[in-house]
Design a protein that fits this description.
Elements (H helix, E strand, L loop, with lengths): L3 H31 L1 H16 L6 H26 L7 H15 L19 H26 L3 H19 L15 H8 L1 E5 L2 E4 L1 H18 L1 H11 L1 H6 L4 H27 L10 H11 L11 H20 L4 H26 L1
Antiparallel strand pairs: 1-2
Helix pairs in contact: 2-13, 3-8, 3-11, 3-12, 3-13, 4-5, 4-6, 4-11, 5-6, 5-11, 8-9, 9-11, 12-13, 12-14
């Protein structure tokens, strides 16, 4: 006669083994789903490298580094807004406005279509940078004030300031009889300060603004990780009520996060003006979409309280890598918008899935 105790023990062991097997399968499935976007991107990049060997050449890589540096400041700014469970739709237009002002201040003297009087002909380069940062900071402070003071959703507030800023851009381009013409003919010292060669890798040159992007990245990493303000930002993003009870000034923190974001847009505008050379009214359009996509790819969660500066850098690089791959493969430029939208949707869906799984 069979021993019932032994039978029960075997049944318990079998249940435990099945449970462990299910847990293992679930962990593998979760790991694949959580990193699905990276896996698909890696497959796509490998495919592009096979089809177009020059894609991973020295010239292409240095160009990717330059593009990453060029678009990094706006992503670093918007990243902080996303940590607070918000966003910033005004970022691109703020870049456009600060680029226009920077270019106007640093145009060559004596040209016929100079937008500002010749009294500004010798305006200091760092002075123009300061003006751009102040303008961007003011726009960011306005965003933060209305979000924090009236508990308005950042989407609504920044949509409003996006429209206001674009109106200011259009008015600025009409200044002094310019009649909307591009702001070009920039001073050579300004152009050299931004686009001059930092180092050369073979025949490919790394421009100076890569160094400035590195400095900004280190600065933002320090602010996020080593300051009380950075800790307060993550606390407010995780749970504003708990942060308030803990003594965090939620109003001030929210306002300062948006102000810092605006300052980053100002720096990017200053860099972009010289990088582009001929500034138009549409400069900066949809830049915030790329920045939001890069932040989400880099792990900055819309749930709030989660994100790393290193992740943002990786996100911007990966996004520029995808755009470059699409160009190498000869994909229609109009398709880029569709792909960009799909990336944002998939990335946000995967992010929300991870959040719900934790709950």
């Amino acid at each position: 006669m069979a021993n019932p105790d032994a039978s029960l023990q075997r049944t318990a062991e079998e249940r435990e083994a099945m449970s462990k097997k299910k847990d293992r399968r679930r962990r593998i499935t979760d790991a694949i789903l959580n990193n699905a976007l990276y896996i698909l991107m890696a497959i796509f990049i490998i495919y592009t490298a096979i089809m177009r060997p020059k894609f991973l050449g020295i010239g292409s890589i240095t160009n990717l580094i330059s593009l990453t540096a060029a678009y990094l400041p706006i992503a670093l700014g918007i990243g902080g807004c996303i940590v607070l469970t918000g966003t910033d739709l005004s970022g691109g237009r703020c870049v456009g406005l600060t680029a226009a002002v920077s270019a106007a201040l640093l145009q060559q003297s004596g040209i016929t279509n100079r937008i500002l009087p010749d009294a500004f002909a010798n305006f200091p380069i760092l002075g123009a940078l300061l003006v751009a940062i102040v303008i961007g900071g003011i726009i960011g402070a306005v965003n933060g004030f209305f979000v924090a003071k009236f508990s308005l959703h950042p989407f609504i507030v920044t949509l409003a300031t996006q429209l206001i800023t674009y109106g200011l851009i259009l008015l600025f381009y009409m200044t002094n009889g310019n009649n909307g013409m591009p702001i070009a003919s920039l001073r050579s010292d300004y152009s050299s300060f931004i686009t001059g060669t930092l180092i050369k890798i073979g025949t490919a040159a790394i421009p100076m603004y890569v160094l400035y992007a590195i400095i900004l990245t280190v600065l933002m990493w320090f602010i996020w990780n080593k300051t009380t303000f950075g800790k307060n930002m993550f606390a407010v993003g995780s749970n504003p009520e708990a942060a308030r009870v803990s003594g965090v000034n939620v109003f001030l923190t929210t306002t300062l996060v948006h102000t810092l974001a605006g300052a980053m847009y100002g720096v990017m505008g200053f860099i972009t003006a010289a990088r582009v050379g001929s500034n138009t009214q549409n400069l900066g359009m949809n830049y915030e979409c790329d920045a939001i996509a890069a932040c989400v790819i880099g792990g900055v969660s819309f749930v709030g309280g989660t994100g790393k500066v290193s992740g943002i850098v990786l996100g911007v690089f990966v996004l520029q890598l995808i755009f470059a791959a699409l160009t190498f493969l000869g994909v229609d430029g109009n398709m880029v918008y569709i792909i960009k939208g799909m990336i944002i949707l998939v990335a946000c869906s995967l992010d929300m899935r991870k959040y719900l799984a934790k709950k």
